Amino acid sequence: MSIKDTLIKKFQDKSARIGILGMGYVGLPLAVVFAEAGFNVLGIDPDQRKTDAFSRNISYIQDVPTETVVRLHQSGRLNMTGDFAALKELDAVSICVPTPLRHTGDPDMSFINSAVEQLVKYVHKGMVVVLESTTYPRTTRELVLPRLTEQSGLKVGEDIFICFSPERVDPGRKDWTTLNTPKVIGGITPACVEVAGAWYGGAIKTIVPVSSAEAAEMAKLLENTFRMINIGLVNELAIMCERLGVDVWEVIEAAGTKPFGFMKFTPGPGLGGHCIPIDPLYLSWKMKEMNYNARFIELASEINTNMPRYVVGRILDAMNDRGKVLKGSKVLVLGVAYKPDIDDVRESPALDVIALLKKKGAQVSYHDPYIPQIHHDKEGWQMDSVKNVMQAVQESDAVVIVTDHKAYDYKAILDSAKFIFDTRNAMSRIAKDSPKVVKL
Ligand code: SAJ
Question: How far is the CA of 275 from the centre of ligand 1 (A)?
Answer without folding.
Answer: 8
